[in-house]
Prior knowledge:
Layout: E1 6-8, H1 14-25, E2 31-32, E3 44-45, E4 47-50, H2 58-78, H3 81-84, E5 90-93, E6 96-99, H4 102-107, H5 110-120, E7 121-123, E8 127-131, E9 137-142, E10 159-166, E11 176-178, E12 183-185, E13 192-196, E14 203-205, E15 213-222, H6 225-229
Antiparallel strand pairs: 1-13, 2-4, 3-9, 4-8, 5-6, 7-15, 8-15, 9-14, 10-13, 10-15, 11-12, 11-14
Amino acid sequence: xTDFMGVYDNALTTEFCQHCIQKxxxxxxxxxxxxxxxxxxTKKNSMDLMLNQQSSWQSExxxxxxxxxxxxxxxxxxxxxxxxxxxxxxxQTKQGPRQISAEDIQSMDDVAIANLIKSVFRLGSTNLQEYxxxxxxxxxxxxxxxxxxxxxxxxxxxxVLLWMFYLNDVTQGGETEFYYQQRAIKPxxxxxxxxxxxxxxxxxxxxxxxSDKYILTSWLMYRKAQELYGQGG
Length: 233
């Protein structure tokens, strides 16, 4: 039985990861990390920086988004129904438009799959998080899909996949522990993790023991209904 989790090593270079950590530590813009209900250190203890709100991080965001897209292409090839299962996507043939099947995905090149992904989904805001050694962590088992208490757009209900990059190695502690899969992923620099956002992949971030832990994290979300179906959608 598959666990629907993609783990892709070397998705970001060592140099880029180190650059992001250094730039973060030199920044004065990080804030205490929050859950969906605000700051609660019994659940999450981190310092967070929302990169989309920082004009000086736009170049890095371009690199991050490209690396996420490359990982998503691999993920969609392995589990194509994440793309073609919910929406009736079509391709143009000599006989006219035809609905895309899971089998079609296997014969498509990376550019075609990337274009389909971008037509259906969008990326959430990217959060760079620091978890201090023997102190930080996201101790609370949680999933990513829920009605948000303050967001009128309810982007959290558009989440399909979570994604996360580890920016450094942590030799002891700091694992991302998925409850139902009974799988704990050890932080390894440059590795990208992609998994469903729903309760099936409830997870937590264990306290790093040997060193501070740095990650980039966000979601793959459906585009708004108006974009997918038109103004009447």
